[in-house]
Amino acid sequence: xxxxxxxxxxxxxxxxxxxxxxxxxxxxxxxxxxxxxxxxxxxxxxxxxxxxxxxxxxxxxxxxxxxxxxxxxxxxxxxxxxxxxxxxxxxxxxxxxxxxxxxxxxxxxxxxxxxxxxxxxxxxxxxxxxxxxxxxxxxxxxxxxxxxxxxxxxxxxxxxxxxxxxxxxxxxxxxxxxxxxxxxxxxxxxxxxxxxxxxxxxxxxxxxxxxxxxxxxxxxxxxxxxxxxxxxxxxxxxxxxxxxxxxxxxxxxxxxxxxxxxxxxxxxxxxxxxxxxxxxxxxxxxxxxxxxxxxxxxxxxxxxxxxxxxxxxxxxxxxxxxxxxxxxxxxxxxxxxxxxxxxxxxxxxxxxxxxxxxxxxxxxxxxxxxxxxxxxxxxxxxxxxxxxxxxxxxxxxxxxxxxxxxxxxxxxxxxxxxxxxxxxxxxxxxxxxxxxxxxxxxxxxxxxxxxxxxxxxxxxxxxxxxxxxxxxxxxxxxxxxxxxxxxxxxxxxxxxxxxxxxxxxxxxxxxxxxxxxxxxxxxxxxxxxxxxxxxxxxxxxxxxxxxxxxxxxxxxxxxxxxxxxxxxxxx
Length: 571
Prior knowledge:
8 strands; globular; 47% helix; six-stranded mixed β-sheet; Rossmann fold; alpha/beta
């Protein structure tokens, strides 16, 4: 992902029962529902939001937003963030940002939200408290700073010593940078602006920045004042002078914790010896991203496979599931999974199984609907080879894996039940979905038609989609109407978990429906919200839909905001 700046009466058949107050039109021209609560709206956007990345139904920004280089969707997200910051629950903005960073593994957007929070009076008091938690890597200190400069201070080029920076952000970034070791700071030290020097010039608060003086001195001036006190920095300086890749270079690479980008830039990346040298320093994500290059250079696949499939490494890495698919697809496309390299393919599948194994089970009957329509063919980010369809299919495969009785339905113009079994690997289940031809329209209502036709009495429906649903026939069919018909026919207690994979800011079902969980995210951990939501639902006296639940007002005493309340409590 890129870094920023760096109706009335009884309805016929499938007609919506929606209250007129929240009905709107989505970007595909179909029925949608506005979400008046900005915190809840943010919840449907943030988990799948790679900031300022293009979307299939994306729109251009105008005015000042366009001048800042923002897309229309990025501007929409920031506007929602401002509404939260200026509303009755301003802390929600930081809690949601922390949830997205730590649970959904979104990197850039939480840093942008932290910067925005520093500009708003009602959220400033929370910034220092959350900065240290939201900033998970040393380079994110620079990302927050860059976002603030771009949005509120005229950009990096206009940065001058003494320019005002909110005190809460100064202290928050000082706390954050102070928690990183010399090696962690050096890993992300580069000439790209803003540099650590730029940040430290703006947040210098004496002892508050929490860095040893020799480390501070190097980051600001490039001077090594005490090699014994800063061995990693001293080794990095010595490494930078090397022109030959010899035993001394190998020792300096290890001592300086130089990342793969630094070493490959200096010595080239076509040699197996270079890759072998940087492998011990590489993080799990870097390993995934560079598998093709390493195998092409002849790196032994056995240790790669062992590390990839290590359950402890998988858990620690916090990778989004589609990262494994990306690595696998790149190797398949390059023809590199033959012969002895086949162990890497097996390791990637094992890693995915490990990611799913830690999730809670979904009891009862679960229907998982995966959107395979035309709009889902767009990539999740500008540089990604992963489409929204692939992300939906992978999450659907994981959801089926953790279901006691799971049924997978893919939909587009039509909808079809896919014969996924528990013996299928997650990648195999993905392939089965992708090879099921359902056309290009987004007739989500047909999922419920299949459920009715097959008489599947489901406890829950988990929908993975960009939520741009409509009726390609031009008729009155809607997803909300189909849910109402299913509830009145087979199970009035059906719970719908709507997982938004594009974050346009509207939903397919009304947020007033207490049996609807609106959320977003590419992480497998989204399945935890399913369990938490239903646990809260069971503990709340919410009537079945045929007893009036679908039209009850969205008051705190009735509306189950389990996911949002859980985030408020935990973050």
